[in-house]
Amino acid sequence: MATRMSHATEVKRVLEGRDGRKLAQLMDLQDEAMRHAMANGSKGSTMAELRLIDENLQETFALLYETAQLLQARNTKLAYETLVNALGPFQRAFREDEDAWLVKPMHRMVKNLRSVAEACDAVPNGMQEKTNNMADAGAQMMKCFAVSIQAQHNRSKKLAALFIVNELFKVYFKLNTLHLCKNLVRAVMAPTFAKLEEFPMAQRVTYMYYVGRLSVFEEKYKDAEEQLEFALAHCDKGAVKNKRRILQYLVPVKLGRGHVPSMDLLQKYQLYEYTDLVGSFKCGSMQAFNQTLLQHQRKFIASGTYLLLEKMKLVVYRTLFKKVHQVHTKMVLEGAEGRGKSTQISMEMLKASLDWQRVSMDLEEIECLVSNLIFQGYIKGYLSHQKRTLVVSKQDPFPHLFEVAKSSY
């Protein structure tokens, strides 16, 4: 079992070897070794052992140990404040060291900051006053980001930046301050920022996942599809949960662009909220679509995909009316419609299909819906208000959704 003295001795050894990966592990406030160390041994012996190392890192670890103790005592408010104080000396150590071995420890400090801020904000009001440390954590992380990108003489130190950007994304999405994400994207796209290809693939996948979600929010669905597809294609094969998170956004985006996922895919990643939705999407069942949307409304709103799925109602209407056209054409060819034309579909016939789906609309509302479908490119044709008839094109009256998406999404 680790003690404060043994932990400090290990820190000293790792510092002498300049092992950044191991040092980052020793700085993990959620690590069992750190917790055991804080519960065993005296503070004085620990400080005596640490006195021999770099002054800035000595101060950093002294404050980290204090933070760990405060977390054990469930004083999360003071723990967060102490951890913020530890950032200053660590940033100085990072800035002053000529090598890049402190990149991993920088990542750990940022992760510590987010986790402690989250724990602090989660404390019930009855135990201590309500705080909003996540917002402050975002500001503190920006200071770490600035230190990393300002590394003039060592390009490898700049590779600390993308990980920090991803942590900031997590903060901003949790706080629903997505407008702040745009500044991060601009920074990453700046010519002074290292090329994305230089960063580890895991960090690039995370970045593309959040940028893809941001594109969904901004209704840039073509960009979202490309970004989320990159994240899915390069995600670790065994990371099933991460793939599921990506697909929660990629599936509705691809639906909107005319690509219907297989049921096997939805079952494999337990995306059960989309199975009925996809079924109604394919067969044009407005009733089933509305029921599924209502059933999973909270989940879709929380994920930010509800408005995108709402827009797909037009696609379901388009599929339903396409089936009406197919039935109408068959009836004309068989002579059941008398002298009717296959390209002319009455509003009454469309209303009958909607009534069958338990969608209540009068003829004026249906005309408005059809006009919108024509305007959006889902139907080729025109509306004869005088005859209350939809006149569709003889050639490709219901274009493939992918073709429509190219111009509208």
Automatic annotation (TrEMBL):
This is PCI domain-containing protein. InterPro entries: Csn12-like, PCI_dom, WH-like_DNA-bd_sf. PANTHER family: PCI DOMAIN-CONTAINING PROTEIN 2, UNCHARACTERIZED PROTEASOME COMPONENT REGION PCI-CONTAINING. It comes from the Eukaryota. GO terms for cellular component: transcription export complex 2. GO terms for molecular function: double-stranded DNA binding; RNA binding. One of its GO terms (biological process) is transcription elongation by RNA polymerase II. Residues 205-397 form the PCI domain. It comes from Picocystis salinarum. It holds the Pfam family PCI.
